[in-house]
Task: structure prediction
Amino acid sequence: MAQVQLPVFHRGFGGTMRRDAWWIRPIVIVILLGSFLGYANWAAWQGDHYQFGNYLSPFYSPLLFGPDPFAWFGPRPAWFPAWISPALLILPFPGLFRVTCYYYRGAYYRSFWADPPSCAVGEPRKTYWGEKSFPLILQNIHRYFLYAALCFLLILLHDVWHALHFADPVTGVEHFGLGVGTLVLAVNVTLLTGYTLGCHSLRHIVGGHLDQLAGRPVRQAAYECASCLNRRHMYWAWMSLLSVAFSDIYVRMCSMGIWTDYRLF
Ligand code: FES
Result:
């Protein structure tokens, strides 16, 4: 077969023959991810206004120590350092699940490290280590954070169940109801479910290690479901990221008395 030798051009950082606005996407990602990281850090260190009635901010769920009715182990023990907010105890799990996600890896490698900033655009380094050596080989831990993320989904679902029960202000008796906050938390857990169940690692867990899926209807159905969600993984990733932040803002604003939570029934 005839072979054609094509010349390889080494362009400097940002050099390209592309004529489209390739730089818009990395800039938007830096703004969105940077804003989220800034807000999430601020909210996690606050240790306040994370609960409003029967609503709990997803940044603080599960609440290990704190006020009733959400705390798993009762009030904060006296020996526990006051500067550690309850969110700091649990956020590393969903946080590292996102940081090691296949989609986000591609997004922040390009946007924050410019490695490369976009396809066919010159990058600032000449060597490529890939993810086979330290420290990026640690990204392979993603599948283990997936197990934690699945547990967090169940906990957040339970929070939505909690958000469907409102205590009577006089008698304290709980009644089934629906508030705007309930809907906010329900949409959030729905988007998080779409993001988590479309994970590449989950797809491999349910459909991998087999030569063929035919004759295994349960695994085939699970694989097709995961694949279907996986096709839009980027959208689920962004929508769920924004909804987590908005859920915290909603609970915080209601708790501070700035927003009113309207009851639908
Ligand atoms: S690959 Fe994105 S959550 Fe697993």
